[in-house]
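Task 17 of the worksheet. Students: predict the tertiary structure of the chain below and write it out as structure tokens. Keep your answer in the requested format; marks are given for formatting as well as content.
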Amino acid sequence: MSKNTENSNESKALPRVSPATDILEREDGFYVFMDLPGVKREDLNIDINENELTVTGRALQGASEAESFLEVQFGPGEYVRAVSLSDRVDRERIKANLKDGVLTVHLPRLEKLAPRRIPVQTA
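Model answer:
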């Protein structure tokens, strides 16, 4: 069996895990922190569909042929987590950062619209 075939079979059989997640509300918006050990930026997707933010990531690290794990608590796997978005989130200004295995997503609040008067036109 070729290595490419082995890798594609291995990735299909990855266990799905919901990552440990903290959600914090601050004055400037909401912050979502997710533990994604072993996930590289290129293996991470963040999608918005209506009022749901979905994070999926693949951790593909494993033991080499010369090594074997004695215990595995995180290893190759697929992380999947969906978070409901408030109507108060400005979807155009969402930012994400992946550093040291922790994903931080900033969900900024919508700017409050100032009250305004609507002019009435005559026909």
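Marker's comment: The chain has one helix and eight strands. The longest strand covers residues 39-49.
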